[in-house]
Design a protein that fits this description.
3-stranded mixed sheet, 13% strand
């Protein structure tokens, strides 16, 4: 029954893409956009252009990984463009609409590029589960008429991972990732220095063998979120001392591990309590 349902959704996804005729696909290298790119490339061939946007708010290593993934998937057309998101008016103020400002700027540029390339639609990897999350950026996508084929095909995150595994995509079990700005509390000014500090801290912790890492940034205090089953492992192997040493070298004075572990959208809790929605 489950397999039948998924087959129908994949068929629906292929039909949606075929009807679009030509697309520019915003490609991050994550689970969702990789599956979407694989199917779009199969269906549309050279009428699909994948574009990876590099900004100050994402680690540079993610750009390299996206490029390598596209190459390994034999994607016919893929390009990388750079944008300065910190220069977008109002963005560094870090208000509740920061994601909206970012998405609006990125996708307006992608629309302009699609027009120059003669492509009919700009598409991206929002899935059906994302609709219920706090995602102000979705409003920008709707305003700009950006299409989300995975959502339109009613594909959930779990189904996308299942299909990705069936297709032998290396991203099928990739941990979720959001931009580095999501580590900074709302209202605290976003700086390039803070983003670089967070990026380096997470990289160092990943190198110790920890799979899911978030370094929530509060000036000189780092609140580290890990998978709950990995927290005891940190102390059993003495990794806590290495983490403290390395993060203090980066400039953190206080280093804590959140006992609740990693959970998606933990920085949005107060917004939800106030009734703020996307």
């Amino acid at each position: 029954m489950y397999r039948t349902s998924i087959d129908k959704k994949i068929k629906r996804l292929r039909k949606i893409l075929l009807n679009m005729e030509s697309v520019l696909l915003a490609y991050s290298g994550g689970v969702d956009s990789t599956l979407l790119l694989k199917v779009a490339n199969d269906v549309l061939k050279d009428r699909c252009l994948a574009v990876t946007v590099g900004t100050e708010t994402y680690p540079k290593k993610r750009i390299k990984k996206a490029v390598n993934l596209a190459r390994n998937l034999d994607i016919l057309r893929h390009k990388v463009i750079d944008m300065k998101i910190l220069e977008v008016p109002g963005f560094v103020n870090n208000s509740e609409n920061r994601c909206y400002l970012c998405k609006r700027e990125i996708f307006q540029n992608l629309l302009d590029l699609a027009k120059d390339e003669g492509l009919r639609y700009v598409i991206e990897g929002t899935n059906y589960d994302d609709v219920s999350d706090f995602r102000p950026g979705i409003k920008a996508l709707e305003e700009l008429k950006i299409r989300s084929p995975l959502k339109d095909a009613i594909l959930t995150k779990g189904e996308i991972r299942y299909i990705s595994r069936e297709m032998d995509l290396s991203t099928w079990d990739k941990p979720p990732f959001t931009c580095l700005v999501s580590r900074i509390p709302y209202g605290v000014k976003i700086t390039l220095e803070a983003l670089q500090m967070i990026d380096e801290a997470e990289r160092l912790i990943h190198e110790l063998g920890l799979r899911q890492v978030r370094v929530r940034h509060y000036g000189d205090l780092a609140r580290i979120e890990l998978n709950r089953n990995e927290i005891p492992w940190v102390f059993e192997r003495g990794l806590n001392e290495k983490i403290v040493s390395r993060l203090k070298e980066l400039g953190y004075t206080y280093i804590t591990i959140d006992l609740e572990g990693y959970r998606r959208g933990s920085m949005d809790i107060k917004l939800k309590e106030k009734g703020v929605s996307s």
